[in-house]
Amino acid sequence: MIIKQVSLGFVCGITSTLPDTGQPEIAFAGKSNVGKSSLINALMNRKALARTSGQPGKTQTINYYHVNEEMYLVDLPGYGYAKVSESVKEKWGNMIESYLHSSQTLKAVFLLIDIRHDPSANDKTMYDWISYQGYQPVIIATKLDKIKRSQIQKQVKRIREGLDVAEKTPIIPFSAQTKQGRDEIWDLIEEFC
Ligand code: GTP
Ligand code: MG
């Protein structure tokens, strides 16, 4: 994908009505701090259009990034963020669920898992939910630069087993630092759109 233009198209909070964008959407889900906003920046060739942070819980709204005025990359709030109250967690959960359930033009949901860690119960729930809703899940194993090359296959296998991922489901190792995996992810996005 050649990036000609990017902008923040819509921002939706707990009380907002979700927009009907009328264009293909690709959503990015995953635990807080896993690297969703960093991945979106890397895909858009931007350093900081999507706000990132070392502190988990940075993205608290659903942010729609408009790419080339033809499709949207959708940054979802992370789950599993310990520092917010149960009632706020529940509201975010409902917001994410309502988005995934109601978007008319959502083409795929990419689930991000830190390549260093085994998937959590929340990751598994999210994965099952994506599949159940009829989307073909794609797993991105993030922070690839944090492990040795010799560990990659082993970690990918652990993620595959932890989520009980079908053989045909791709797991793409990715680093926002080196941009490794970026082109492969764009190829998939273009196929889905
Ligand atoms: P929330 O918005 O809180 O849900 O987090 P997020 O999933 O959007 O994570 P974000 O992109 O803000 O990244 C969290 C932290 O991880 C930041 O400090 C990033 O710089 C760092 N990070 C993200 N991706 C990578 C990566 O590929 N490699 C390394 N080394 N650090 C990364
Ligand atoms: Mg974020």
TrEMBL record:
Name of the protein in its database record: Probable GTP-binding protein EngB
PROSITE patterns from the UniProt entry: G_ENGB
UniProt record, GO biological process: division septum assembly
Role according to the record: Necessary for normal cell division and for the maintenance of normal septation.
MF terms in GO: GTP binding; metal ion binding
Family indicated by similarity: Belongs to the TRAFAC class TrmE-Era-EngA-EngB-Septin-like GTPase superfamily. EngB GTPase family.
InterPro entries recorded: G_ENGB_dom, GTP-bd, GTP-bd_ribosome_bio_YsxC, P-loop_NTPase, Small_GTP-bd
Listed HAMAP family: GTPase_EngB
GO CC field: cytosol
UniProt entry keywords in alphabetical sequence: Cell cycle, Cell division, GTP-binding, Magnesium, Metal-binding, Nucleotide-binding, Septation
Cofactor(s) annotated in UniProt: Mg(2+)
Pfam families for the chain: MMR_HSR1 (PF01926)
Domain EngB-type G residues, every copy: 22-193
Cleaved signal peptide residues: none
Organism annotation: Blautia liquoris
